[in-house]
Amino acid sequence: MDKPDPPLRKRTIEERRTWWLDACKADPEQTRFFKESGSDLALADRLVENAVGWMPIPLGVVSGLVVNGTSYQVPLATEEPSVIAAASAAASAAARCGGFTAGAAMPVMRAQVFLEGSAADAEVRLEGARGALEAEARQLLTSMERRGGGLRGLSMARLEGLEVAVVHLDVDVRDALGANLLNTLAETLSPSLEAYLGGKKLMAILSNDAGFRPAWAEVWLTVDPERARRIALASAVAQIDSQRAITHNKGIMNGIAALALATGNDTRALEASVHQFAGASGTYRGLTSWTVSAEGLHGRIDLPLALATVGGSVGIHPAAQMALQLLGNPDAPALCSIAAALGLAQNYAALNALVGEGIQKGHMALHSRRTQRTD
Fold first, then answer.
1. Does the annotation mark 248 as catalytic?
2. In this structure, are strands 70-77 and 59-67 parallel, antiparallel, or unpaired?
3. Which residues pair with 221 in a beta bridge?
4. Could you tell me the pTM of the whole model?
5. What is the set of domains in the chain, with CATH numbers?
6. Catalytic, out of 80, 170, 302, 331
């Protein structure tokens, strides 16, 4: 009997690459591309399990995005042809009018501990044990406190319809996303929470809700009055028609998610939090508003953003490090401010095209030229 092949996790990366090409029945052109786009195989093996190589995403730059008076060269990792072109055009239009004003809150994130069957007076018990619990939490957050962050809140709530209570641990994570820190904090405090509040731990994990981290950007543009009116009306449609709002917000995230990917951030957590925010009212709505006044066309975006500039793959991936260097090594709130301005720029470019020449002439024409290129 033939000896079974070892599982992928027990093979070297070169063995896994050979397996991949055989399993995919790769043709010569596919094989050439796969081998030539190998990049740093040791890094791939460090970043993910069962690595076989890389799925290269084009990395480009939006030039001249002016945010709070500073002109940025913004790196985007994206496979969609029109994203960088659209953002660049909008950035140029905004720069002629003074650019974007933007801001972001301090980087507070939340960990949650869910308890089954906690005591009826758990809320009272929490207040009695607050000092001890906060002291235990701070022992784990010493290094974060040295950097100006640390514990910012300890609270609890009961989940309606379930015999489950949730304890919230809010932490200023500074320039990190803080996932490992928050998970460690939640798990370490769980035995004490069980002892003080009663009940049994169900789960202990961070929340990717970035509701404590609102970011915003706004811009005034000089636009033909009729075009401005149509842009404002189109943005109003996205506040009422949820099907339109989905595509409206997808266009915004074209830029923000591409910036997150270029800087080594978690695009899935980012998208989940933003879309939860867009639907928080019970109706999924557009993230931007555009209005017309005597001063011109005014645009504003409000959304939660959790972006890091240290830790995780940000600190491992050389391309992510270079992307942040290109931006001048911003701290986390500054990166979120740039991202918010970029999202507003993408939205203006999309709405301007939609109410003008239409999406096909610009976006899809560029897409068609790029995808049909054979040279």
1. no
2. antiparallel
3. 297
4. 0.93
5. 8-47 (no CATH), 59-105+213-371 (3.90.770.10), 108-207 (3.30.70.420)
6. 80
Looking at 172, 175, 218, 266, which residue is catalytic? 266
d(CA 252, CA 242): 15
Q: According to the model, what pLDDT value does residue 366 have?
A: 57
Residue 275 known to be catalytic = no
363 catalytic per annotation: yes
Which residue has tokens 């909008």?
A: 90
Catalytic residue from among 172, 175, 218, 363? 363
Number of C-beta neighbours around residue 125 at 10 A = 18
Q: Which of 201, 250, 298, 367 is catalytic?
A: 250
Q: CB–CB of 78/254 below 8 Å?
A: yes
Angle between helices 332-354 and 225-240 (to 10 degrees): 110
Run means of pLDDT, 10 residues per run, the chain, 375 residues: 84 94 95 89 93 94 97 97 95 98 98 97 98 98 96 98 97 96 98 98 98 97 96 98 98 98 97 98 98 95 98 89 97 98 98 89 60 51
Q: What is the SS3 assignment for 339-366? A: HHHHHHHHHHHHHHHHCCCCHHHHHHHH
